[in-house]
Amino acid sequence: MQQRVAASPSAPQQESAEDLPEPLPEPAPEEMRLEVVMAALSDPLRLEIVRRLLLESEAFDHTCGWFGFDRPKSSLTHHFRALREAGLIRQRQYGLERRSQVRVHDLNARFPGLLDLVAASPSQDL
């Protein structure tokens, strides 16, 4: 599974690992459970979040506002937390913002083929 990264002069520079804030709490790869991951993906909004992060993201530069969902911030916070606690995404805190990225390497190692299915799923009109 390869992420598409848009190359544009205005794209933010990739930060080196030592410059990144620590990730928020998440399960270790060996602690991820298929039924928890599948439960998190069973919600259409969460499935669309992961799909868009896989196909359209650039590093950790996407906050919940980037998706353009017409939902209260508290609702989006709940959905992002469910994805993080299931092990699907990694989030880092940048000041008041949380930025997300799919844990591609960990998920491909633990559940081969799962992210290919997510990426191939039809876009949801939410």
UniProtKB/TrEMBL annotation:
<dbReference type="InterPro" id="IPR036388">
    <property type="entry name" value="WH-like_DNA-bd_sf"/>
</dbReference>
<dbReference type="InterPro" id="IPR036390">
    <property type="entry name" value="WH_DNA-bd_sf"/>
</dbReference>
<dbReference type="InterPro" id="IPR001845">
    <property type="entry name" value="HTH_ArsR_DNA-bd_dom"/>
</dbReference>
<feature type="region of interest" description="Disordered">
    <location>
        <begin position="1"/>
        <end position="29"/>
    </location>
</feature>
<feature type="domain" description="HTH arsR-type">
    <location>
        <begin position="36"/>
        <end position="116"/>
    </location>
</feature>
<feature type="compositionally biased region" description="Low complexity">
    <location>
        <begin position="1"/>
        <end position="15"/>
    </location>
</feature>
<protein>
    <recommendedName>
        <fullName>HTH arsR-type domain-containing protein</fullName>
    </recommendedName>
</protein>
<dbReference type="InterPro" id="IPR011991">
    <property type="entry name" value="ArsR-like_HTH"/>
</dbReference>
